[in-house]
Each structure stands twice: as structure tokens, then as C-alpha cells.
Amino acid sequence: MTAVSRRDQQLERVILELLAKRAEGATICPSEVARAVGGDEWRVEMDAARAAALRLVAAGDVDITQGGEVVDGASARGPIRIRRRA
Questions:
Q1: What confidence category does residue 74 fall into, taking pLDDT thresholds of 50, 70 and 90?
Q2: What is the side-by-side strand order in the sheet with 62-66?
Q3: Which of these, 23, 22, 11, 20, lies nearest to 56 by C-alpha position?
Q4: Of 10, 22, 64, 80, which residue is least crowded by CB atoms under 10 Å?
């Protein structure tokens, strides 16, 4: 198992913070997380933001969705959304 870096922890924290500010059932885009952490260079954070979301799925904190349906984030291709697990 790969160690989780401080940056990874920051990304996970930002996901949870952004979701805490949204209504229950609302979603966020990984790009919001990447922008919050990466600023003008946010695009380089996109893969890390998606990976952080996957770790939070494994921890039981969030779900990955596409088209409003929960999907396997590890195999999802294209745009995804992140929402708090009910």
C-alpha cells in the first residue's frame, strides 16, 4: 500500500470541506478540488483529486457518480461527480 502524502491528505480534506458546504445529496466536481488546491496550475491536480475521491470511497465517506448514479470510480471514464455518502 502506498503512503498517503500531505498533499493527498489536503485533497481529501478539501473534498470533505466542499461537500460540507453543500446541501445533502449535492455533488462537487474533482476540478473544484483541484482548483482549490492547485490554483492556476489546477489541471496537474486532477488525477490526484480523483485518487483522493477514490480513497474516500474506500473509507465509506463519499460516492462517485455519473449521470446521478453511483458508479465504480476506479473504472469510470469521463466526467465524474463526488457526493457525501448517505
A1: confident
A2: 27-28, 81-84, 62-66, 69-71
A3: 11
A4: 22
Residue 1 CA to residue 14 CA, distance in Å, equals: 23
Candidates 85, 35, 30; CA nearest to 57 is 85
Query: Residues with Cβ < 8 Å from 65, sequence gap 6 or more?
Result: 27, 71, 80, 81, 82, 83
The pLDDT tens digits for 10-48 are 999 999 999 999 999 999 999 999 999 999 999 999 999
Question: Looking at this protein, which amino acid is placed at residue 40?
Answer: D
For the chain, which domains are there? Answer: 6-84 (1.10.10.10)
Q: Residue 69 and residue 80: Cα distance in Å, rounded?
A: 10
